[in-house]
């Protein structure tokens, strides 16, 4: 049933001389009315009611503008929609406390008024249904029945408040130039003639002239053209800082927060300047109404923790995924030489993983308490993975977080047209092939070394390496039809994704802290020769993320079972490389037959498939969001993938060129 506007309630407010703000609160409540989506229709009914009652319209118009003259407009113009100077953590805690214990509302401040009027997250929905034309019609209805002197005073008050806000915002921008976090990213900010300071100078001249013109309209206006030039240069400076922060310079949450604040401040300066330099009355009203609608939405989000975190962490997450993207190119094989190099690197890791798997089995068999066992297993995993990295070997499942960022970078460059989707499809096939090359490298050598160790132990001791109960447990653990092997593989995939984020974070932090320079000048390292010290500093700078990611990945794997033990939940992990090593130890500790062995090998590959694609999907999702992009035409991408698979199915697992590509290359060589 349609809900109609309650005109009688507002008529009573006006006739009983209720304060204007209270009448506005009742008006908004009527428009909001159960959030039923009919706010636009009810506003039309309000306008019809006001226009049909000239006496009421004149009274409300005069009182509204008189109230507006006494209202302090400046606070909303400089604060709503712009991050505070306090920083992310302080802002987060302030918003959290304000949710628990809301601050008193200043009814004489525009910020307090908007907070009173728009205080529900659902207000965004009904505000979106009201058109700018309806707001302008409402305001025009009030303007047409206001005394000329009152209206002019209200207009002058609005302009003065906008000028105050404009000048203060420009001062804020100039002050941010000396922020150490920004100066670290771009040392050219120490230049006294920077765009930030230049903008403040121009705005100061403009506002001083406009203040004088309010008193004496005959004074020539100040040409704002150079202000727009400085604004463009400021935007370019912020964009440069973002790029450097998301690249080699590294970033932090506080710097991301500061750059977001700068961008918001420049945007508000542009909105205010556009209003102040516009001469046509209707255009001024339209732009002013657009600004106030922005402030309405900002008032709704004023205490939103989600909005704060989403906007502040965007650049930091981009910086992290950018670091992973730079490393990810090394994990994508596009030709036979890189394919075999990746296989050899993974094969080397397989030998170490086989030894780690045996050590883990031994630790479990020693009968330690759950906590001690967890610590030892975590160290076994973590230090083992670090050793793999130090020896320049490759663990297959460490690739997805890196390669996903590279894929996201290609998506960001554009996916318009079938050619672009074909390029993305080709990259996705390259990623899949590279990951499986590493999987086969890990699996083959892990099984071979495990088999050699099992047979050697049986030959030396005269008994199997694993007893029948242990063999049964290990084979049961990798069977997806007898347990939760694939679910546990998905958990491992999540930890793989998390380890990629951790690696990206530490890579970004190394850039941000300029670790290489710090280590080169560290007093405790001065005993090393300069070349050795520089090499060590460079290595730690470039590899601190990978070392931290590998170690924490091992800790995450090792502690999962203990967390399940504490919570009484069925939690565990299955990792393709360790599962293959366990299969090798089990198969050669008790004869299981060649057919059963092949079936269990398929189970291991199924675990690897889940490891890889859970990790890749999560990493790709984060990388796409951090770059503000998405795969808009997923069906076309899938179609392109299928077309390329049909052209040459072998290419999915082995780097071969199709006949068409070979002919095309031959034709290009001839020309």
Helix content: over 70%
Order of helices and strands: HHHHHHHHHHHHHHHHHHHHHHHHHHHH
Query: How many extended strands?
Result: 0
Termini separation comes to 74 Å
Secondary structure elements and pairings:
Layout: H1 7-15, H2 20-32, H3 39-51, H4 54-70, H5 74-79, H6 88-100, H7 110-117, H8 123-128, H9 132-143, H10 148-176, H11 180-185, H12 195-215, H13 225-245, H14 253-277, H15 281-300, H16 305-328, H17 336-365, H18 370-390, H19 399-412, H20 418-461, H21 468-477, H22 485-513, H23 515-520, H24 530-567, H25 576-587, H26 594-626, H27 634-647, H28 659-670
Helix pairs in contact: 1-2, 3-9, 4-10, 6-16, 10-12, 10-14, 12-13, 13-14, 14-15, 14-16, 16-19, 16-22, 16-26, 17-18, 17-20, 17-25, 18-24, 19-20, 19-26, 20-25, 20-27, 21-25, 22-24, 22-26, 25-26
What would you say this structure looks like, in words?
- By secondary structure, the chain is mainly α.
- The protein has 28 helices and no strands.
- Helix 17 crosses helix 20.
Short descriptors:
mainly alpha; 75% helix; 28 helices
Please summarize what this structure is.
The chain is mainly alpha-helical and 671 residues long.
